[in-house]
Amino acid sequence: DDDIFSSAFCENSEKLINVHLFALAAKYYSLSSLGICTPLEDVLEALKGDREGPTGIKPDEFMNNKKSHEVQVMSELVDSIANYCGIKQVIDIGSGKGYLSSFLSMQYNLKVYGIDSSSSNTNGAHERNKKLRKHWRAYQSRGRKNLKSQSLEKTNDRPVESGINCKTINEELLNNASSLQNQGQAIVQDSVPSYGSTEMATRETNTETEAGLVTGTQSPETKLSEEVLAVLNVLPADAVDDFSSSHCNCRELCEEEKVQRKMTSLKTKARKSNESNLYFPLTSCITAETELNDIITDLEDCMLVGLHTCGDLAANTLRIFTAKPEIKAVCSVGCCYHLLSEQFENQEECHDQVWGFPMCQYLKDKGWCCGRNARMSACLALERVAVGQMLPTESLFYRAVLQVIIEEIYGVTKSDRHVGKTFSKSSSFIDYVRRSLKKLELDDSKLPDSCIMDYYEKYKHRMNELEAFNMLKVVLAPCIEVLILLDRLCYLKEQENIAWSGLVKLFDPVKSPRCYAVIALKSQSC
Fold first, then answer.
1. Which distant-in-sequence residues (6+ apart) come within 8 Å of 59 by Cβ?
2. What is the spatial distance between Cα 105 and Cα 443, in angstroms, rounded to a whole number?
3. Where would I find the Methyltransferase domain in this sequence (predicted)?
4. Which of 340, 512, 515, 524 could form a disulfide with 193 if both were Cys (CB 3.0 to 4.6 A apart)?
5. Quick one: how far is CA 255 from the chain centroid?
6. CA dist 179 → 35, 149, 182, 497, 515 (Å)
7. Tens-place pLDDT, residues 462-482
């Protein structure tokens, strides 16, 4: 109840007087408590039905634990959406070093364009792909072993066919958005598009059909060839070399030679059919006005994805999705809320600028503003703190005292320069201050060591206060994130061409704190 939660603050001074009530209120207004999110399992069930996804290489073979977790979960969802919509082209906005893009291409046979504004990231993605190709033989060998063991398990223990009916998105998933609909944000259409079922069936069975045409009968040797082909299908077209056909003088080929020739034929067909399913890293700065046709010459029906798109890029991804008819779906996980531009943060009028926040008309009409401090707080990770990964109090204290120094000694209250990760490179507070002043292009010769230490001693006893204050910011972080994410969801629900949109918790928030995806599918007629 709002009245109960308001008593956490003094009515006259507006100071916080009840920390426990404050924490309860913050929890009440978090996404997990509001019941707005759609469970990932429900989304996958509605999209995939009884269709099983491909088995293949795990991303932890060539990624760290955090990135592997993110890529594995998100790529399965993206592939399910692509299959549901009958599309084969994916555009990864803010692709970075191409972790998600390359895995979508290799594991799920999708044609992926990864677009990043940093040429160093794009070049890094190219180099990374070269290194991956060198290791494919090892991954391929492991894939064969996995396929053999899985085949044996299926033979020994055949599961009973499931009788569970697939939930449809329009019946099950839209119910979770009812609280938003009741507020008059938008009307969600009753039907869900059933794109390209013929194309989807072709995509799933194409290689299998080719294998049947070549081999004819299901001998054990042929079964082994198809298992090897299943591994080869996740590889890029130039990842492996063709087998060289050996010359046989015998009129009748031995069984081993027959199998080898069948494998050669199957691999050649697989490579030809997969030539279009590659990963292309591109360098370009994406804005709300970006014309994708100018960047991608063979643009076709596709979906947009973004794994931790920074600042305004997440908002612009949604705007491009709604504006371009060829983009049928979007799956976007944003981050770096502190870098969002806000329409009502400054008093200056900029009529032509496209802002990162707010997006929806409801908050625009309210003239809503978060402010940089609130957006900075939204980036904090409550779940990590809850499991003992405490905030870096000492580095925060160093930064706070530094700000006092540059204001009082140098008279600087604003700067476009950043201190960055100076704390980790510093041996002491004095070293930290001097390194920081150089980064800020301030003359440190006028500041003796004794003066620096005087500031440190003056505020040292208040370090506990700083820690307590930052813990309150951590508790409040999910509430601010809710506001930003719901703004994006409401924007989508205001659009007439959207069949379904929702928020989905994709990742373990301890591994990946920015764990919520904004997902939307367009109406079939669009």
1. 67, 68, 71, 72, 75, 99, 103, 107
2. 51
3. 66-178, 249-343
4. 524
5. 48
6. 9, 47, 5, 20, 22
7. 999 999 999 999 999 999 999
Does residue 421 sit in the same domain as residue 454? yes
Spell out the alpha helix ranges (H) of 29-118.
31-34, 40-48, 65-85, 99-108
Residue 11 maps to a domain: yes
Residues 338 and 399 in one domain: no
Q: Is the pTM of this model over 0.90?
A: no
Instruction: Match 């055949």 to its residue by tokens.
Output: 158
Backbone angles phi, psi at 426, to 5 degrees: -100, 145
Please give the torsion angle defined by the CA atoms of residues 220, 222, 223 and 229, in that order, rounded to the nearest 10 degrees: 150
Both 431 and 507 in a single domain? no
Whose tokens are 């906005």? That residue is 93
- In-domain check, residue 285: yes
Condensed to tens digits (0 to 9), the pLDDT of residues 362-373 reads: 999 999 999 999
Sign of CA dihedral 35, 37, 39, 43: positive
Contact in structure between 477 and 337 (CB atoms under 8 Å): no
Sheet with 302-310, edge to edge strand ranges: 279-283, 111-116, 89-93, 302-310, 327-335, 516-522, 498-505
User: What total of structural domains would you count in the chain?
Assistant: 2
Token pair 């069936």: residue: 201
| Amino acid found at 180 | L
**Residue the block writes with tokens 């991954």:** 139
Question: Residue 412 is encoded by which pair of tokens?
Answer: 């600087």
What DSSP assignment string belongs to 400-416? HHHHHHHHHTT-----S
Position 378 pLDDT exceeds 50: yes
Nearest Cα residue to 112 out of 265, 277, 239, 233:
277
Please give the structure tokens belonging to residue 210: 């080719």
Calculate the alpha carbon distances from 88 to 100, 212, 267, 418 in Å: 15, 23, 21, 42
The mean-pLDDT minimum among 14-18, 78-82, 350-354 falls in 350-354
Q: State the pLDDT at residue 127.
A: 73
pLDDT digits (tens, 9 = 90+) for 422-452: 999 999 999 999 999 999 999 999 899 999 9
Q: What percent of the chain has pLDDT over 90?
A: 54
* Contact by Cβ (8 Å): 225, 209: no
Of the CA atoms within 13 Å of residue 150, those in its CB half-sphere come to 12
List of residues 6+ apart from 128 with CB closer than 8 A: 97, 98, 102
Q: Residue 484: CB partners within 8 Å, gap ≥ 6?
A: 334, 337, 340, 357, 370, 375, 378
Q: Which residues contact 361 (CB under 8 A, 6 or more apart)?
A: 494
Cis peptide leading into residue 193 (ω within 30°) = no
One-letter amino acid at 38 equals T
Q: How confident is the model at residue 156 (pLDDT cuts 50, 70, 90)?
A: low
